[in-house]
Amino acid sequence: MKQAQHTNEQLKNASNVALASLLNLTLLPVISFIYLLFIYKNTKPGQIDHYHAKLGIKLNLVAFAALFLVSALMILLGGFNSPWTWVYVISYFTIVHTIFIVIAVWALVRAWSGDKLTKN
Amino acid sequence: MRETFTKGMARNIYYGGGVFFFLVLIGLTVDTVTTIPKTDNRDNLTEQVAAGKRLWEKNDCIGCHTLLGEGAYFAPELGNVYTRFGKSTDAIKGFIKSRPKNGIPGRRSMPQFNFTDEQLEELAQFLKYVDGIKTARNWPPNVQG
Amino acid sequence: MKYQSQSIARLYFIAAIALFIGQILFGVTMGLQYVWGDFLFPAIPFNVARMVHTNLLIVWLLFGFMGAAYYLIPEESERELFAPWLAKLMFWIFLVAGALTILGYLLVPYATLAEMTMDDLLPTMGREFLEQPTITKIGIVIVALAFLFNIGMTILTGRKTVINLVLLTGLTGLAVFFLFAFYVPDNLVLDKYFWWFVVHLWVEGVWELIMASMLAYVLIKVTGVDREVIEKWLYIIIAMALISGLVGTGHHFFWIGTPDYWQWLGSIFSALEPIPFFMMTLFAFNVVNKRRRNHPNKAAVLWALGTAVMAFLGAGVWGFLHTLAPVNFYTHGTQITAAHGHMAFYGAYVMVNLTVISYAMPIIRGKQANNERAQVIEMWSFWLMTVSMVFITLFLTGAGILQVYLQRYSEAPLPFIVVQEKLALFYWLREFAGLVFLVGLILYVYSFFAKGKEVEIVEDLDMKKAVTS
Q1: Are B23 and B50 members of one domain?
Q2: Do A84 and C402 touch (CB under 8 A)?
Q3: Is B143 among the domain residues?
Q4: Residues 109-138 of B with CB under 8 A from C
Q5: B-C contacts (CB, under 8 Å)
Q6: Which of A22, A32, A60, B51 is the most buried (most CB within 10 A)?
Q7: Model confidence over C128-163: pLDDT tens digits?
C-alpha cells in the first residue's frame, strides 16, 4: 500500500496543498487558491506534492465550474425572480458543494499518509 | 504539526472550553431571564391564559401547528393567528368550534375537540397573549405566518 | 466477546431495531397525510402519528445508546458489568413503559391520556418531543439513574479510558438535561427557552459526546489504529462540539421573545457547529486510511464512514444552511427545518447506532463478522436508506424554499394552506423516497437472518500492539 518514500519536505508540501484545496472550498476561498498555485510552482513533476497540488487545482477548477457556472446558468435560464430557480440553485449548490468538500477531505488524509487519491 | 499537538492539550481544550462556555451559557441565561419581562407580555398572563396554555398542551396542538415557529409544519403558524383573524377572539373560537367531526374529505383536517365555551375562551385568550409577545423584528415576517 | 455481560446489549439492540421499524411505518403514514389530508382521520390524526414517529425515534435511539454502553463499557473497563440483573430489569421496565406510552397515544385521545395519567398533578405533557405522560417521564429518569449507576460503577471500579469516560459524561448530561422536561412555566417565553435545554443540549450537545465516543470505539476496533491517536481526535471533536454548541443554543432564541443579542451570539456560535461534524469526517477518513488491519466486518466500516459523512451533511451543512439569523428569519419553522431534522437525526444518531450494532451484533452472536451474503445485503440496506434519506432531504428542502418564497418572501404572501397545496409534488416525491427507505430497512432486518459463506477468521484481531501502540 505504501508508495515510494517521500522526503519530509514533500510530505509537508503535499499536506499543505491538500489543506489549501480544502480551505479554498470552505473558509478561505481565493486566498487559499493563490497559495496553492504558489506551492505548485515549487514542486517537481512525479513527486507526491506536485501530484496533490495538481489534484487540488483541478478539483477547485471543476468545483468552480460546477458550482458557480452551473448555478449562474440556472439563474440565467430560470430567471432571478422565479421561486423554482432558487429551489434548484440552493439544493444543487448545497449538495454538490458538500460532495467536493468530502472529496477534498479524502485527498487531505491521503496527502497526510503520502498516498495518491486512489490506489494505483 | 500534529506531533506537537498532544492529547493533553486536546483534553485541556475540551475541559477548559466546555466549562467556560457552559458558564457563559448560564450567565446569558440569567441575563435573558431578567430581561424578558420587557418582551414576554407577562402583564397579560392571566389565570385564563394559563388555563388556555394547559388546553393547548393537553390536546397536543403543537403536533400539527407551529407556535412562534416551533412545532410541526403540518398546519398554520398560530403565534400571530389573533392578528391574522382580524384581532378577533370570536373568529378563533368560531373556527375551532366549527371543525367537522369526520374531517373534510381529502384535505388536512383539524379534529373536533368538543371544547366548552369556557375552554374556547381560554384557548382564544392564550393565543391572544402569544400574539402580544414582542419577538425580534416582529417575527413572523408577515401576517400569513 | 470478552465479557459475558456484554451480551445484554443484544436485548437493547433488538428492541431498538423493532422500534425503528415502527418509527418508519408511522413516518410513511405521516408522509401520506401530507398529501392525502384525511388519511386515517379521525382515527389517527397527524399529531398522533407524528408523536409516535418522533417518540419512537427518541426511545429507540436511547435503547441503542444504552445497548452500546452495555456492550463497550465492560470491554473498555476490562471487567464484567457491575450489575447485569439491573441492566436486564431496566430493559423490561423501559420497554414496557415505552410500549404502554405509545399504545396510549394510539388508543385514546391525547387529552384522555392526560386525564388517565393524572397530568394535572404535575403537568408536563403536550410539548414537542416531550409529549410523554409525566409518569413515563419519571420512569425514564429512574431507568436513566439505574443505568448510570450501573455503568458508572463498572467504570469506576475498572479501567478508565477516554472513551468510557466521555461516554459516561455524555450519558450523565443526557439524564441531567432531561430534568428540564419537568419545568413547564405558564410564561411561554420561559417555557420555550428552557425547553431547548432538553432538546438542543441533547442533540447539539451531550449526544455529540455519546456519538463521538461510540464512533471512536468502533474505529479503534475495526482499524487497529493507535488508541492515543484516536483519543486525541475524540477530545478535540467533543471540545469543538461544546465550544460551538453550548452558546450555539442561541440559534433557537431568535424569534421567541428573547433579547436581541441572541441574534448575534446564536448566529456566530451555531455557524461553528458544523466544525465538530466536519472533524468527525476527517477523523473517520484518516483512521480508516491509516488502518493497520482489514477487519472482516466491512459493513461496520461502511456504517462508520457513512455516519461521519452523513452527520456532517445533515447536521453540519443542512444546519448551517438556515442557522444565520437573517436567513432563519425567513426559514424558521418551515419545511427547511424538517429537511435538516431528518438528515441530521439519520446521519448522526441513527447511523452511529447502526454502526455499533453492525460491529457488535455478530460478535455477540459468536463470530467476528457476518457471512459475506449478509454483509452484502446489509451494505445494500445502507445505500438504500442513506440515498433515500438524501432524497427525502432534498425534496423537503425544495418544498421549504418554495414555501419560504410564496408564504414569506414574496410581495403578495399566500396563506399557509394555499402554499401547502402547491408543494404537493415535493411531498409525493418525499413519500416515494420514504418508501424506498422502508425497503432498505426491511433489507437491513433481513440481513440478520441471511445465510451464506462464513468469512475467514482473522487471528490477530485482539492484537495488543494495536491497543497500546
Answers
A1: no
A2: yes
A3: no
A4: 109, 111-113, 129-130, 133-137
A5: 232
A6: A22
A7: 999 999 999 999 999 999 999 999 999 999 999 999
Q: Quick check: is B145 in a domain?
A: no
> Which residue in A has a C-alpha nearest to residue C313's C-alpha?
A98
Whether residues B124 and B86 share a domain: the answer is: yes
**Closest approach of chain B CAs to the CA of C150, in angstroms?**
25
Domain that holds residue B94: 41-138
Residues B15 and B59 reside in one and the same domain: no
**Structural domains of chain B, count:** 2
Residue B79, in any domain of the structure: yes
The Cα–Cα gap between C161 and C148 comes to: 17
CATH number assigned to the domain comprising residue B54? 1.10.760.10
Residues C205-240: tens digit of each pLDDT:
999 999 999 999 999 999 999 999 999 999 999 999
* Same domain, yes or no: B21 and B77: no
Tell whether B21 and B84 lie within a shared domain. no
Q: Are B105 and C39 in contact (CB under 8 A)?
A: no
> Residues of A with CB below 8 A from C289's CB?
106, 109-110, 112-113, 115
Lookup: cell for B124: 382564544
- What number is the ipTM of this complex? 0.97
Which residues from chain B sit within 8 angstroms of residue C322, using beta carbons?
none
Nearest-Cα distance to chain C for B141, in Å, is: 6
Q: Which of A91, A97, A108 is opposite residue C397, by nearest beta carbon?
A: A91
Put simply, the answer to whether B39 touches C257 (Cβ < 8 Å) is yes
Residue A113: Cβ-neighbour burial (10 angstroms; 0-12, 13-18, 19+) = middle
Domain co-membership, B13 together with B59: no
Q: What are phi and psi of A79, to 5 degrees?
A: 95, 135
Chain B residue at shortest CA distance from C190? B33
Using only the alpha carbons of chain A, give its radius of gyration.
Answer: 17
C344 shares contact with chain A (CB less than 8 Å) = no
Residues ≥6 apart with Cβ < 8 Å to A53: A13, A14, A17, A36, A39, A40, A43
- Helix, strand, or coil (residue C23): helix
**Ramachandran region, residue B71 (left: φ > 0; alpha: ψ -120 to 50; beta: rest):** left
The end-to-end CA distance of chain B, in Å, is: 51
**Single pTM value for the model:** 0.96
Rounded to the nearest angstrom, the minimum Cα separation between C99 and chain B is: 19
Cα nearest neighbour of C308 on chain A: A102
Residue C126 falls in which region: left (phi positive, over 0), alpha (psi -120 to 50) or beta: left
Q: Do the beta carbons of residue A83 and residue C401 sit within 8 Å? A: yes
Looking at CA atoms only, how far is residue B91 from chain C in angstroms?
17
d(CA C300, CA C356) in angstroms, rounded, equals 7
Domain limits of chain A?
8-112
Asked if B28 lies within 8 A of C265 by C-beta distance, the reply is: yes
Q: Does B95 touch chain C (CB under 8 A)?
A: no
CB pairs under 8 A between A and C: 50
Least CA distance to C336: which residue of chain A?
A91
Closest to A106 (Cβ–Cβ): which among C285, C313, C406?
A: C285
Q: Do B144 and C232 touch (CB under 8 A)?
A: no
For chain B, how big is the Rg over CA atoms in Å? Answer: 22
**B73, B8: one domain:** no
Long-range own/partner contacts, residues C456-461 (CB < 8 A, 24 or more apart): C456/C296, C457/C296, C457/C368, C458/C293, C458/C294, C458/C295, C458/C296, C458/C368, C460/C293, C461/C293, C461/C295, C461/C368
Per-residue pLDDT reduced to its tens digit, C402-438:
999 999 999 999 999 999 999 999 999 999 999 999 9
CA C241-C235-A56 angle, 5° bins:
75
**DSSP conformation class of B71:** E
Q: Does C327 touch chain A (CB under 8 A)?
A: no
Q: Are residues B107 and B64 in the same domain?
A: yes
